[in-house]
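Service request form, structural biology core

Requester: graduate student, group of Dr. S.
Request type: structure prediction, single chain
Budget code: on file
Notes: please return the result as structure tokens.

Sequence provided:
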Amino acid sequence: MNETWVTVTGNVATDVTWRRTATGSVANFFLMSNERRFDGQTRAWRDGDRLGIRVTCWRGLAENVRMSVTKGDPVVVHGRLYTSEYEQEGARRTSTQIDAKSVGLDLRKVCTRVVVIQDSGPDEGRGPLDVSDLVVVPDELTAPGYDGLVAPSTDGLPAAEDDEFPEREALAS
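Core staff response, request fulfilled:
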């Protein structure tokens, strides 16, 4: 059977719900995506079609979404699209959902700082996150003009290709 993979951008429309299950953590939220179209006759932007979809995140992703995403945040979600059927009050209903594999803030609309989680193995084996799992890189180790945190490299400087960040040599001296 083929799987359908999608990437959707939109805003988190509900609070993130989180719970622990026998197989790990699960987080859910509702994502709204509104199309914007330019009307050539009126020379103005107008709202187009809307998409509302339930997003489910598992294990380590669920933990990170719980700590990082709040209602109203612009996000990019990538995952497996599927439809589930259920019965409610005697009527058959369907629900379209995304089983998320990755969720990120949409940096076209927000600025953020990165906190790196120490890798303790595969997602499935990691327990609940703790503050001791996080590594915060001091601002002076980030590239000039960048107001975020990055994963440290072995030499203590931001992990990046030299041609992307020519300032790296200046940071080393």
